[in-house]
Amino acid sequence: MPNIKDVVEEQEIFNILKKTQNPSREQVVKILNKAQEKKGLNLEEVGYLVNIKNPPLIEKMFKAAGEIKKEIYGERLVLFAPLYVSSFCVNDCEYCSFHRKNPAPRKKLSLEEVKEQVKILEDMGHKRLLLECGEHPVENTIDYVVEVIKTIYETKSNKGEIRRVNVNLAATTVENYRKLKAAGIGTYQLFQETYHRTTYEKLHNGPKADYERQLFAHDRAFEAGIDDVGLGVLFGLYNWKFEVLALISHAQYLDRKFNVGPHTFSVPRFQPAETVKIKLHHAVSEDELLKIIAILRLAVPYTGMIISTRERPEIRAKAFKIGISQTSAASCASPNGYSNDHSRDEELSQFSLQDHRNVNQFLISILKQDILPSFCTACYRSGRTGKTFMELAKPGDIHNFCRPNALLTFAEYLEDYAIPQTKKLGDQIIQKYLKQILSSDIKEETKKRLEKIRKGERDIYF
Ligand code: SF4
Ligand code: SF4
User: Fold this and answer.
1) CB neighbour class for 148 (10 Å; exposed up to 12, middle 13-18, buried from 19)
2) pTM across the whole model
3) Cα radius of gyration (the chain)
4) Is 40 in the pocket of ligand 1 (CB under 6 A)?
5) Backbone angles phi, psi at 269, to 5 degrees
6) Ligand 2: distance of its center to the CA of 53 in Å?
7) What range defines the domain where residue 274 resides?
8) Ligand 1: which of 85, 87, 91 to mutate, most ligand atoms within 8 Å of CB?
9) Region 214-222: what's the mean pLDDT?
C-alpha cells in the first residue's frame, strides 16, 4: 500500500497556507503569468492564489482562468446526465440522504426500469451518462452494476443511444475494477469528499469510513487497467483552501505515479437534503466556489472540470466561463427520478438540486452565452484514454478534436431533438464555430460530415 503522505501531506499543506496568507500583488501577477504557460502550478503557488483577498486581483485571476479555459477547451461544454440506479447503502455519511440510518424506503432499479430511464434520457438527447449508486454488498453487487452498464449500452430509443457510461461507485477491489473496465466504462469517478483525515473519519460510518480505502481507490483502478479517473471534493465539509491544495496534491501524485493525471475534477458543494442534519462549519459561498474553479483551472489546466445542477443557473453560467468543461443538465438524483409517473415523486433524492431547467431551456441559455454544446464521446471510443489522452490534453492539442466533434454531435442533437428556438440559435452557433476551425482540411471534412448528418447519418466523429 502506498503511503498517505505521498498523496496528501496535511502538515505541509497547513504550513503552505500559513506562509502564503498575505500574497502581494507582485507575487500573484507572477503566478498568473506562469499559469498562462499552461504547465500547472506548484502547491505553494496555489497557496498564494487561495489566499487572495483583494477584489481586483480576484478579477484578474478569473480573467486568467477564463483565458486558459478558452485556449484549452475553447467554447465547448460537454453535457451528461446522472443515472441513479440504487439508493441502498450500508454507509452512514453525514452529508448524504442515502445514509443507512435514514428510514425512508429504498429503491433499486430492475433492468427493465433501467431501460425505461435510459430511453427517457435518450429522448432528451443525452449520449453520456454518469451511473451512480450507493454501496451495498448484497443489493448493489458488481455483477448488478455490470448488468446495468450492459443494459444501458444496449438500450436504444429512436435515434438515441448512450455512447459513454461513466461510473461513480464506492471504492472497491482491483478485481471489481477489472469487471468495470471489461464492461466498457468511460471515466471512473470517486471523490475523497474531504482530504482532512480527522474530519473524514468523523463524518463517515461503515466501510467508507476507511480513509485509506477511499484515498487509494484510484490506484487500484489504475492497476485494473482503468486509466481515466475523476477526483473530487464535497466542498463545505472542511476548509476549502486545504481541500483545494490536497486535491491538487492528489492529482500530482497520480500524474507522478502513473504518468496520467486525473481526467476530471468535480466540485460539488454540500446541498441540504431531508434527514441530513449535519452542521456545516466550513460552508463555501458561491463566490468561493468560483474561486475554487478558477484556481483549479490555473493549477491543473489539462484536467476537465465538472459542475452539476446542485448549483443555481446564474453561478453555473459564470463557472462555464472560467473553467468548467462538462456539466449535467436536466438531472434527477434519485432512482427512477426521470419517470413521468408522479406516484414516484416522493422518492428519496440524494440531495437538493438548484437548476431545474430541461435540456432545451438549458441549451438556449448557454447558446446565448456563445457556448457550443457538445454531446461528444469520441475519445474513449477511439482509444484516446490515459496516456494517449494526456499527450493530447497537456499541450492543449485535444482542442483540435473537441471543436469538430462538438459541432457534429450538436448538429445531431439539433436534427433529432431541438425545438425551433434551439434549432435557430444552434445553427448560428454551428456556423460561427465552424469558421473558427484552424486547419482548412479539418474544416472541409467537418463541413462534409455536417452535411451527412443533415442527410440522416449518425455517430460520425474525429
Ligand atoms: Fe452511501 Fe455514497 Fe451517500 Fe455515503 S455518500 S451514504 S456511500 S450513497
Ligand atoms: Fe471529450 Fe475527447 Fe470529445 Fe474532446 S474530443 S469532448 S476530450 S471526448
Assistant:
1) buried
2) 0.96
3) 21
4) no
5) -105, 150
6) 35
7) 76-378
8) 91
9) 98
Same domain, 274 and 177: yes
Q: Which atom of ligand 1 is nearest to the CA of 90?
A: 1
Query: Per residue in 22-34, pLDDT tens?
Result: 999 999 999 999 9
Domain holding 219: CATH number? 3.20.20.70
Asked if residue 321 and residue 215 are part of one domain, the reply reads yes
324 and 391 share one domain: no
Going by alpha carbons, the residue nearest to atom 4 of ligand 1 is 93
> Is residue 120 assigned to a domain?
yes
Mean pLDDT of 211-240: 98
Residue 114 lies in a domain: yes
Cα(124) to ligand 1 centroid in Å equals 28
User: How many angstroms is it from 105 CA to the middle of ligand 2?
Assistant: 39
Tell me: the pLDDT tens digits for 289-342?
999 999 999 999 999 999 999 999 999 999 999 999 999 999 999 999 998 664
Distance 204 CA to ligand 1 centre (A): 9
DSSP state at residue 394: T
Q: Which of 32, 52, 70 is the last residue of a domain?
A: 70
Report which DSSP code applies to 186.
E
Distance CA 194, CA 94 (A): 12
Residues 51 and 151 in one domain: no
Give residue 303's identity as a one-letter amino acid code: T
Nearest ligand, measured from the Cα of 90 = 1
108 Cβ closer than 6 Å to some ligand 1 atom: no
DSSP state at residue 138: T
Asked whether residue 4 is domain-assigned, the answer is no
The total number of structural domains that make up the chain: 3
Task: Please check whether residues 202 and 297 belong to one and the same domain.
Answer: yes
Q: 208: Cβ below 6 Å to ligand 1?
A: yes
Ligand 1 in reach of 93 Cβ (< 6 A): yes
Contacts 24+ apart (CB under 8 A), 25-34: 25/54, 25/57, 28/52, 28/57, 28/60, 28/61, 29/60, 31/298, 32/60, 32/61, 32/64, 32/298
The answer, yes or no, to whether any atom of ligand 1 lies below 6 A from the CB of 134, is: yes
Residues 123 and 270 occupy one common structural domain: yes
CB distance 89 to ligand 1 below 6 Å: yes
Ligand 1 contact via 96 beta carbon (within 6 Å)? yes
Q: Hey, whose CA ends up nearest to atom 4 of ligand 2?
A: 402
- What three-state secondary structure class fits 108? strand
